[in-house]
Write a structure and sequence with these properties.
Length: about 180
């Protein structure tokens, strides 16, 4: 029985060597593909506003036509979707607004003390900011590029059937909530 086990191990060792040899000869220069993200699209525009980027219509088409990519894992940045019934915005119009804001990365998107401001309104979509900064300390603001990133994240997580509605915190400012909704 011991001889059978040693002989069996020898066969496995030979087959493992043959398999390893064939694996090393495989072509490995394939490029990984990642799902399209409106958040990363907005980040690309912010980094290089004059670069070659998808148009809002092209970005909309990619976002609507891809399959669900949510892994279901927990994330530090929590996006809440469909928080107010009947206020879902047009995805195409929201994408237009994200492009508009992303092309103004250094401009401030501000909200007065305890207030709400509309940063972009186009067609059947508006991107708004709501301040949770203590009223006695005044208003709050973030670069419009950070608002665009937060809105892109909402789009990535909350788009359903050509509409979107949700809220996310602006990047770098926990006191500014970014909302996408119907005007």
């Amino acid at each position: 029985m011991v001889r059978l086990s040693l002989a069996t191990l020898g066969v496995f060792a030979v087959s493992a060597t043959a398999t390893a040899g064939s694996v090393t000869g495989r072509k490995t220069d394939t490029e990984a593909t990642y799902p399209f993200s409106l958040e990363s699209w907005a980040s690309g525009i912010i980094a290089d506003p004059d670069g070659a980027h998808l148009s809002p219509d092209e970005a909309y088409a990619l976002a609507v036509n891809q399959t669900e990519t949510d892994s279901g894992t927990l994330e530090k940045r929590v996006v809440r979707c469909n928080t107010v019934a009947g206020t879902s915005a047009s995805v195409a119009d929201a994408v237009w607004c994200i492009d508009f804001l992303a092309r103004r990365p250094g401009q401030r998107c501000g909200v007065g003390a305890g207030g709400r401001s509309s940063f972009c309104r186009h067609g059947l979509a508006t991107i708004q900011g709501v301040s949770s900064f203590p009223v006695w300390k005044g208003g709050t603001s973030s670069p419009c590029g950070n608002v665009a990133r937060a809105a892109g994240r909402i789009m990535d997580k909350c788009t359903r059937g050509g509409t979107v509605q949700g809220v996310n915190t602006a990047y770098g400012n926990g006191y500014l909530s970014v909302h996408i909704r119907r005007p």
